[in-house]
Amino acid sequence: MSALVDKIKEHPQIFHSMRCEMVRVWDCEDKLNLTFPEEFTQYLTHFGAIGFGNVEWTGMNVEADLNVVRATLAARDTWAGFPADCFVLRPAPETGGEMILCDEQENIYAWKPEGDPAGDKADAPSAGNMTKALICTGLAAYFDLCLAEAEV
Fold first, then answer.
1. HSE (CB half, 13 Å, CA atoms) of 120?
2. What is the pLDDT of residue 94?
3. How far is CA 8 from CA 14, 125, 147, in A?
4. CATH number reported for the structural domain that contains residue 15 in this entry
5. Under a CB-based contact definition with an 8 Å cutoff, are residues 68 and 60 in contact?
6. Apex CA 121: angle with CA 128 and CA 81, to 5°?
7. Given this model, what pLDDT does residue 151 score?
8. CB under 8 Å to 77, separation ≥6 — which residues?
9. Which of 3, 114, 126, 140 is deepest in the core (most CB within 10 A)?
């Protein structure tokens, strides 16, 4: 069992969607042209996606912004500088701000694009700039940070 799955199971109050089959995980990886870290694959096949307090993680069997494929493809379409080896773990809040990304090696980043790609003031160079800061290594470690944020 994965460390992340074990940690999530310790909190039965955490909402989760329906688990997904490996064939769907592989399909998602193909669509994103990347390989999910093993911990994220285990997360998808056990929970689909999760939410607790003000924290929501992307995954499968959910709609719109929380679908990992849709969220990542939308970010790639919007921001030319979006890292190709990353997927969206937590979308930016509706009020704007940073989104949380995970790469294939399970590094977790806060990513904040600079400029507004849809606004009149955006120009191509500034809209592609970004701030990418390493938060931690490992989804289980990031889950612990989210628990503290949500005060669960």
1. 0
2. 74
3. 7, 41, 10
4. 3.40.1580.10
5. yes
6. 5
7. 79
8. none
9. 140
The span from the CA of 113 to the CA of 98, in Å, is: 7
Domain holding 95, by residue range, is 3-150
User: Residue 23 phi/psi, 5° resolution?
Assistant: -60, -35
Consecutive sets of 10 residues in the chain, 152 residues long: mean pLDDT of each?
91 92 96 97 96 93 90 91 94 82 97 62 49 93 94 74
145 close to 57: Cβ distance less than 8 angstroms: no
Residue type, 97: G
Query: CA-to-CA distance for 23 and 79, rounded, in angstroms?
Result: 29
> Are the C-beta atoms of residues 4 and 139 closer than 8 Å to each other?
yes
Q: Report the number of distinct structural domains present in the chain.
A: 1
* pLDDT score for 128: 54
31 forms beta bridges with none
pTM exceeding the 0.85 threshold for the entire prediction: yes
* Six-digit token string for 102: 């995970």
In this structure, the chain runs to a length of 152
With H, G, I as helix, E, B as strand and everything else as coil, classify residue 59.
strand
Q: pLDDT at position 123, please?
A: 41
- Residue written as tokens 């995980």? 25
